[in-house]
Design goal:
The complex is a heterodimer of chains A (460) and B (98).
Chain A lengths: L2 H27 L1 H4 L2 H26 L5 H7 L2 H10 L1 H16 L7 E4 L5 E6 L3 E5 L5 E5 H6 L2 E3 L7 E10 L5 H14 L6 E3 L2 E3 L4 E6 L4 E10 L4 H18 L19 H6 L12 E3 L3 E3 L5 H16 L3 H21 L5 E8 L2 E8 L5 H10 L11 H11 L26 H11 L2 E6 L4 E8 L2
Antiparallel strand pairs in A: 1-2, 1-5, 2-3, 3-4, 6-10, 7-8, 9-10, 11-13, 12-13, 13-14, 14-16, 15-16
Chain B lengths: L1 E7 L2 E10 L4 H11 L5 E12 L1 H17 L1 E5 L3 H10 L9
Parallel strand pairs in B: 2-3, 3-4
Antiparallel strand pairs in B: 1-2
């Protein structure tokens, strides 16, 4: 080999080595690349392309007549077939890797559960495989072709700051389920690894716990906790299980298991059970709760039935006495106002909310006339029908109440002025004035055959 | 709701204890209709009243109208929660509250 060829040879090798060093450095050190799946895959692809180019150029230096196109197109068909057949798995992995990096069913740092494998954190993707980290440094190397064809559960999908961990707990059939749910939520709040949850625009201290199913010997309660991406999932799960196990033991919640023999079991002493508080000192307040729905039929007990719903909600959410009194007042006045507007139509009432904000729902199935429609809109804070979003709906409203009456209140509350000398004081307006003055917001939704009246109150 | 009534000649003192709402307001209304004839001073003591709704305000409004013709009506010892209702409804301008 002459000096020129040798120099060319060395230059290509040195360039190749430099390229490999740079790409390795970028993959290991660059923060953006560390957490971006398709960038990492692209870099592997670039490295492969560079490697192939270097080999081709080296061969060309050794054999100037070497023509890549001729080799690929005119080479022995048998050799190409054998090569293709032998490399089909590798090629499949490369193509699947490309598809994964392009479609992004998961990202680096996501917690995924691959069908048949342990849950783990996506650590890396190469041209051939994806690396998933499970317990304490143990990695699962999954070929991209397998990952592309299996079902993947991603608990961190599109969540850049957190990942979800789904937990299941079994309790015995005679458990006070609501108490067990409260205990689990208290444990979630108490754990230093868990994060808050946003639900319906409210930040709650923990996610809901659902009573999901009946098993042979147990009731299954499930919840999803959320942890920071920087938190080791196994540490968080371990912490949660320890807390819940201790709490269940403390409050006498039995975790059932199958008995082979009949064993006499006395259970937690009654005096111990009765002395233990249901909630911890740091019992959370912000949890979503929905009462049962009661049906009012314009009877003499309607207000009392509605107030029972309000008291149930207030007690459940631990409302302060003043807030509870306002809730009762808003409930009583809402029922009174709606029953004045519609005669003899059954009304459904329920209350839901998350601690510092609650919503009193009144709903009935009826087609209202223009007079009732105007009355309902006059109570709404915005003066608008919340269900109207299309031009057709707006036209229908104009037909119902005329064009001059379709302007919104622009958020201004109607002012109620009383004068004893004025014998025209409408006593129905007393209830309306209380309602509109105390409620944070009132929304009305009227469709062809249904009316929803929503009273919203923020207690903070 | 408990209604305690004391009459001294043409002056009547009524103490209300509990809640004045849709279910209890009719009781107060009946009591007042039966008692106000010949009375020229009606005094309410709300120190033990915890809750008032529009139904209660209607009864108070009716009593105030009656007493405006006959004499005067005063409400005393109103709790802050009840006063808030009087204020937001504007009833603080109609009723005499001390």
């Amino acid at each position: 080999m002459d000096n020129r060829k040798l120099l060319g040879f060395l230059v290509i090798i040195v360039l190749g080595i430099i390229a490999i060093i740079i790409t390795n450095y970028l993959i290991r050190k660059n923060k953006e690349l560390k957490k971006n799946l398709n960038h990492r895959y692209a870099l592997h692809l670039v490295r492969l392309a560079f490697f192939v180019m270097c080999i081709v150029n080296l061969v060309k230096i050794l054999d100037p007549k070497f023509d890549t196109a001729s080799v690929l197109l005119k080479g022995s068909a048998l050799a190409v077939a054998i090569l293709g057949f032998a490399a089909q798995t590798a090629i499949s992995d490369i193509i699947c890797g490309f598809l994964i990096s392009f479609n992004k069913p998961f990202e680096v740092g996501d917690r995924i559960i691959v069908e048949g494998l342990e849950p783990g954190i996506v650590e890396d993707i190469t041209l051939r495989h994806t690396v998933i980290q499970i317990y304490d440094g143990i990695r699962i190397i999954v070929p991209n072709s397998q990952l592309n064809s299996k079902t993947v559960i991603n608990t961190s999908y599109h969540n850049t700051d957190r990942r979800g961990i789904h937990l299941k707990y079994s309790v015995s059939y005679d458990t006070d389920v609501q108490k067990a749910i409260d205990i689990i939520r208290d444990c979630v709040v108490a754990s230093p690894y868990t994060m808050t949850v946003e639900s319906n625009g409210i930040i709650e201290d923990s996610g809901p716990v659902y009573f999901m199913s009946y098993a042979d010997s147990a009731l299954i309660l499930e919840t999803t906790i959320w942890v920071s991406r920087n938190t080791n999932s196994y540490v968080a799960i371990n912490d949660m299980n320890l807390r819940i196990n201790a709490a269940f033991n403390k409050f006498g919640i039995e975790i059932p298991y199958n008995y082979m023999n009949v064993v006499k079991f006395d259970g937690v002493p009654k005096e111990v059970k009765e002395s233990l508080p249901v909630k911890t000192a740091n019992a959370p307040l912000k949890r979503h709760y929905r009462t049962d729905t009661v049906r009012l039929s314009h009877g003499i007990r309607d207000v009392e039935k509605a107030l029972e719903v309000a008291r149930t909600y207030g007690k459940r959410q631990g409302l302060e006495p003043r807030d509870l009194a306002q809730l009762e007042l808003l409930t009583e006045e809402s029922v009174g106002v709606i029953e004045n507007i519609v005669d003899d139509i059954p009304i459904r009432v329920w209350i839901e909310g998350s601690g510092f904000k609650y919503r009193i729902h009144l709903s009935f199935n009826a087609s209202v006339g223009s007079k009732e429609y105007r009355k309902l809109l006059s109570l709404s804070t915005s003066g608008k029908n919340e269900s109207i979003s299309t031009l057709a709906g707006k036209l229908k409203e104009i037909m119902l109440i005329g064009i001059n009456n379709t302007d919104s209140n622009n958020g201004e509350r109607k002012a109620y002025k009383w004068a004893l000398s004025d014998n025209r004081i409408n006593e129905d307006e007393i209830g309306e004035s209380i309602l509109t003055a105390i409620a944070s917001d009132i929304r009305v939704s009227v469709t062809k055959d249904k009316v929803e009246f929503l009273v919203i109150k923020s207690t903070q | 709701m408990n209604i305690k009534k004391e009459q001294n000649g043409s002056e009547m003192n009524i103490s209300l204890e509990g809640r004045l709402d849709t279910t209890t307001a009719p009781e107060l209304e009946t009591e007042l209709k039966a008692s106000l004839e010949g009375i020229d001073a009606l005094n309410f003591d709300f120190s033990a009243l915890e809750y008032v709704s529009s139904a209660g305000l209607r009864v108070l409004l009716s009593a105030q109208k009656t007493m405006n013709r006959q004499g005067k009506m005063v409400i005393r010892n109103v709790k802050p929660e009840i006063m808030e209702i009087f204020e937001v409804t504007g009833f603080v301008d109609i009723l005499t509250i001390e």
